[in-house]
Amino acid sequence: MLTMAMAFQEAQEAARSGFDLNHLLSDPGPLFRAALLVFVGIPAMWALSRWIRGQISTRYNPQRGLVAGKLVFWPLALIIAVSVLRELGFSLSPLLGAAGILGIALGFASQTSVSNVISGFFLLAEEPFQVGDVIQVGDLKGVVLTIDMLSVKVRTFDNRMVRIPNETLVKSQFTNVTYFPIRRLDVPVGVAYKEDIGRVRQILLDVAKSNPNVLMEPEPMVIFQGFGGSSVDFKFAVWVRRESFLAVKNGITEDVKRRLDAEGVEIPFPHVSIYTGSESEPFPVRLLKEDDA
Amino acid sequence: MNGERRGPEDLWGDRPVPAPGESQRFHIGPLTVWLRAEDGELWIAHSRATRGEEPDRSLPDDAQWSRWALPEGHRHLHLSPVFPDRPLVVKPEHAFTLMRRASARVYVRVPVWVRVEAMDRAGGRRVLLTEIPTVLLSETWWGDVLDGELAYWLTTQGRRKLAEELFNAHLVISAVQLDNLSDDDLRVEKLSLRVDHLSVYEKDGWLWAEEVRVEYHGEDEGTEIHMDDNPPPEAAGAREISPARVQGHSFKARTFARLRALSGWGG
């Protein structure tokens, strides 16, 4: 704390040493140039940064566009800030010296932030996801909005914005749901024990074939899962484009149900049989009067 | 043979936008399209018969109309047949082996999409309104699960000879010349047809594409694809009615699928 206060005081004194208000008022040239830098330079910097972001985004991807835009924006912002200060007569050498001391102090005080910044660079370099990808971190699932210096902003599907520190993403496991262009959709299907397994398999494959959004290759598959408590269980696995995943997920479940119903294939649900000692005897029922109860 | 049967020659080309309150209907294969003018807008609806079903040409009660507010003075439409917007993975019903140094000519029939464009005058600059597939093809993936491309799936008989029953108003006939120039036999189970590089030609009402020559040089050397600038000899004199979506007549591309391992299963 003491170090920070000293650095701040030193910076104040150093800055004051080259600044002369009377000189500025008598010769408005530097003031005019500083104003020009602020009112023309900053909009131009914004425009250039946005243009480069747009160009790179179009040519490559939005992720690279974002990075390129920032790589242009921040150095230009620094140059403009330094130039304005120089025009106003501030001496920068003592300022930079003070900034060194301040930097060390701030470094200790902001380890988490620095860690997030460095993690952000790792995320940008590694590219495990891009802006627009759908990621899942723990229970959270959403679309990546931005990859910033300190955090990644994610929009959940119920339209909430969640901020995830970069360090968290580097340290923990997450899933990029839309990394690959095609995805496998698994639909669990159970049929009654009396059904012909081969026929069920054929019906399911036919359902896949008749849905134009299900990819013909990789081929749909019906995988036997086991003999369940009430049903013979299958995994009906089809491949779809990532864009049509949700539509197929909804549609194919309906198709399976409709088709199995039409073919007279029973989809069982858990049955509970209660016996009273003998399977053949009817369940005994005794009526009680209110007084007896 | 082509002279014996003629296709629907009057379908493609320019036609006026229907007069206000009037409607037009045209059909091609299993597809029926309705055009209607309402309050200065063009309304378009379509219905499509499923495979093996007799097309019902009456307007469905639940027809989904798409509405188009046309630019000022655009009173003409242009209808043209175009190829689907992605490559096709063509699977012969029965795979065959092309012996080393052997050639084969196969006729593949591809269902067209109907492109509807608006113009300010007959023959004027066209503005794309919509493209309607005559047949909905299933999607497929060409390549492995990490590296590949989206395509449409087409099963073909892979006819080696032209026959009258091959001709249908909504199908473009594409002659594919396969040349196995390698020293290995080539098992043709599927092939990728880059239809976005193909134009559509018309002769006697039937639709044709340029001849596609596929030269297989071996597993490592790859495949070269060449497309002529002209219709195939079988349709000499045909006129081009739709240019290719993508220009370029010679390129290398993954064309044949042999026994490919598709990883990613399990569990």
Distinct helical segment count of chain A: 9
Uncertain stretches of 5 or more adjacent residues of chain A: none
Mean pLDDT of chain A: 84
Helix/strand-derived category of chain B reads mainly beta
What Rg of chain A is obtained from the alpha carbons, in whole angstroms? 34 Å
Task: Say how many strands of chain A there are.
Answer: 8
Mean pLDDT of chain B: 83
**Helical content of chain A, roughly?**
40-55%
Approximate shape of chain A: elongated
Helix and strand string of chain A, N-terminal first?
A: HHHHHHEEEEHEEHEEH
> Number of helical segments of chain B?
0
What would the principal axes of the Cα set say about the shape of chain B? elongated
Sketch the major β-sheet of chain B: 8 strands, mixed
Strand order of the largest sheet of chain A: 4-3-2-1-5
Strand content of chain A: 15-25%
Q: Quaternary state, please?
A: heterodimer
Q: What share of the residues of chain B does DSSP label as strand, in percent?
A: over 45%
**SS elements, strand count of chain B:** 23
Share of residues in helices of chain B: under 10%
Question: Could you characterize the architecture of this molecule?
Answer:
The complex is a heterodimer of chains A (293) and B (267). Chain A has 293 residues and is an alpha+beta fold. Chain A is 52% helix and 18% strand. Chain A has a five-stranded antiparallel β-sheet. A three-stranded antiparallel β-sheet of chain A has the order 6-8-7, with helices on one face. In chain A, helix 1 packs antiparallel against helix 5 (92-109), helix 3 runs antiparallel to helix 4 (62-87) and helix 8 (197-209) crosses helix 9. Chain A starts with a helix and ends in a 31-residue tail after the last helix. The mean pLDDT of chain A is 84. With 267 residues, chain B is mainly β. Chain B is built from no helices and 23 strands. In chain B, the strands form five sheets. In chain B, strands 9, 14, 17, 18, 19, 20, 21 and 22 form an eight-stranded mixed β-sheet that branches. In chain B, strands 12-13-7-16-23 form a five-stranded mixed β-sheet, with no helix packed on it. Chain B has a four-stranded antiparallel β-sheet with strand order 1-6-10-11, with no helix packed on it. In chain B, strand 19 and strand 20 form a beta hairpin. Chain A binds chain B through residues 180-182, 184, 209, 211-219, 221, 237, 239, 241, and chain B through 89, 136-142, 145-146, 148, 150, 153, 262, 264-265.
